[in-house]
Amino acid sequence: MNTATIDWSCIDTWKISAKNTMWCVIGCSIGDFGTILFFQLSNISFPILGIMTLAIINGLITSIILETFILIRQNFSFTNAVKIATGMSLISMISMEIMMNLTDYLLTGGAILTWWVVPIMLIVGFLTPWPYNYWRLKKFGKACH
After folding, report:
1. What is the C-alpha to C-alpha distance for residues 15 and 31, in angstroms, rounded to an integer?
2. I want to staple 100 with a disulfide (CB 3.0 to 4.6 A). Which of 48, 77, 109, 121 is the partner?
3. Full-model pTM
4. Distance, CA of 81 to chain centre
5. Virtual CA dihedral for 81, 85, 88, 93, nearest 10 degrees?
6. Secondary structure percentages of the chain, helix, strand, coil, to 5
7. Looking at the domain assignment, is residue 71 inside a domain?
8. Which 3 state secondary structure label does DSSP give 143?
9. CB-CB contact of 6 with 138 (8 Å)
10. pLDDT 10s digits, 73-118
11. Interior/surface letters 44-66, b for 16+ CB within 10 angstroms, e for the rest
12. 110 by DSSP, 3-state: which?
């Protein structure tokens, strides 16, 4: 099945993929925003690209931790939960992280959280991987959560 044969009008799949994408945004944002906020509040001199790279890495880590926790609560063993969490779509998470940080960079100059940029970053972070998550769910029947 290729993208041309996928039914892109399935409301139920859009809802499920939106829920999956939202969990991913929450997990990624914890590490990403936490890293940026740490450097912003501590005034530690560090290159913007370095801060943003750390933010992306920490976002991926916190997303995997949150996913593992969710799966354990659904009665998965710790080992299986970690395997599933690390095996979920890195394409989705990485695209989300890159676009959130690019949005921050373009709007603030980078590694700066303000009251107005955070909602924009979250929206962009959600919208970027959502179609991919829909496609993945339709094509493979696989959801992250």
Report:
1. 25
2. 121
3. 0.88
4. 18
5. 160
6. 75, 0, 25
7. yes
8. coil
9. yes
10. 999 999 988 888 887 778 889 999 999 999 999 999 999 999 999 9
11. eeeebeebbebbbebbbebbbeb
12. coil
> Among 1-10, 22-31, 35-44, 108-117, where is mean pLDDT lowest?
1-10
Separation of alpha carbons 120 and 141, rounded Å? 30
Amino acid at 19: K
Q: How many residues are recorded in the chain?
A: 145
Range of the domain at 102: 22-140
Sign of CA dihedral 11, 16, 19, 24: negative
**Alpha-carbon distances of 124 from 3, 24, 87, 97, 120, rounded to whole Å:** 22, 13, 23, 10, 6
| Whether the Cβ atoms of residue 27 and residue 100 lie closer than 8 Å to each other | no
Q: How many domains does the chain have?
A: 1
Instruction: With respect to residue 5, please indicate whether it lies within any of the assigned structural domains.
Output: no
For residue 117 the two structure tokens come to: 């940029």
